[in-house]
Design brief:
single chain; alpha+beta; Ribosomal Protein S8, Chain: A, domain 1; 4-stranded antiparallel beta sheet; 10 helices; flat; RNA-processing protein; RNA binding; KH_domain_protein_archaea
Amino acid sequence: MNENRAENFSQATSTNSSVSTKTSNATNTFTKATRTQGYLVPGATRFYVKVPLERIGVLIGKKGDVLKQLMQETQTRVTVDEVNGTVIIEPQGPQTRAIDLMKARDIVTAIGYGFSPERAFRLLDEDQVLIVIDLKQYVGPSENHLTRIKGRIIGEEGRARKNLEEMTGTHISIYDDYVAIIGDYESANAARDAILMLIEGKQHSTVYRHLEREMRRIRRTRIVSLWEKEPPQK
């Protein structure tokens, strides 16, 4: 992706992601006036997402199968401009929910950041989020620095990225000068924090130990939460 295209590429993430990641600047006309009890008014609400031209074919899919599945799963209408990479996402009708329109936006964005459609469609699940880290925010525009940092995150033969994915149960994509993460909210943020530690220069072993402790904490919290939700036995 060239410099201008990178600047124009929409930085969409989960609305739950922290300040340290890029948040969505996909252009939209999403207002209270266009919503009725969680549903949308066709023609009054839409998202615009800029996707790199080399990812448009992946978004559309063979014979348009990916685009068709996306529209069917989210009850949206998606229009792709194959010349400039602009994608317009709109509700199919009054039955389209606001959450589904946002899911469609995030799936399009995830594919733009290098995820396969299969992994991007994981965002259809209610508990899945997309987090994007702009490496230039942390290391500047130097190509040498960016290459070095991406090498630390990917690791030799991809082992570092694979370790992070396996430890957190997330999917991680390094595309151009961005790192994108798909996973449940807590795990995706744990993966993000681990990546930020690598960017800061922490040793891989230190990052893995930190991540092991964090994932144990997350698992304990979930077990306690499930236990508290169980109805009392008679």
